[in-house]
Amino acid sequence: MNSPALPKSASLPSKNKTDKVKVILAGALEVFTTHGYASASMDRIAAAANVSKPTLYRYFQDKEGLFVALIQQLTATNNQILFDLSTEPNSQNPPEKALRHLATSVLEKFSRNEPLSNLMRLIIGESERFPGLARTFVREIQKPLLSRLSSYLAAQPQLHLPDPPVAARIFVGSLVHYLLVQNVMHGSDIVPLERDRMIDGLIHLIMAADKS
């Protein structure tokens, strides 16, 4: 499986077009984080990006697609690490090392990514009024990643996992819960837990089946 595709307009080879997409996404980030999803009109985004509305619509058909593209941009590095996981059994990179690298990268980069934290708060806050936005996020971002991790875990027979898709959900869900509580909900001083301790416990949980 290849890495997640950029919006059609961003996948074109022209450097100018790629730069234009970056400018538009930067403007969209400013508008979304300042005004929220409901008030983030395409007019406002075009103005913040200093592009015309026809130019904006040439690259993105609607606000929802623009929002998802922004999330994809902010999570691109971690997504690539996951999609680089080998699905070959007994690959040279053992599961414990590969999963630790993935977990460390996700927690480390997310904790330093304030724009992504803000957008996650936005998705949670707006999910009641805009269920389509939340569903699109799950479909376009979460589903491919869970599928890839499931395939990776299924290709590691030495783990003896009875249900790799469930194991993938436990792994991803644990990371997401940690990030939501510690970063998005500002709970690090209420339920403190060191990042490395969290990762050690999660890896031990996944690897435990191999020792049973």
What is the compact description of this entry?
With 212 residues, the protein is mostly helical. It has helices spanning 15-35, 42-49, 53-59, 63-74, 76-83, 95-111, 114-126, 131-154, 164-184, 195-211.
Task: Give the arrangement of secondary structure elements.
Elements: H1 15-35, H2 42-49, H3 53-59, H4 63-74, H5 76-83, H6 95-111, H7 114-126, H8 131-154, H9 164-184, H10 195-211
Task: Describe this entry's structure for a reader.
It is globular, with a radius of gyration of 19 Å. Helices cover 70% and strands 0% of the residues. The chain is built from 10 helices and no strands. The protein has 2 domains: 74 residues, Arc Repressor Mutant, subunit A (Orthogonal Bundle), CATH 1.10.10; 138 residues, Tetracycline Repressor, domain 2 (Orthogonal Bundle), CATH 1.10.357. The protein is mainly alpha-helical. Helix 8 packs across helix 9. The N terminus is likely disordered.
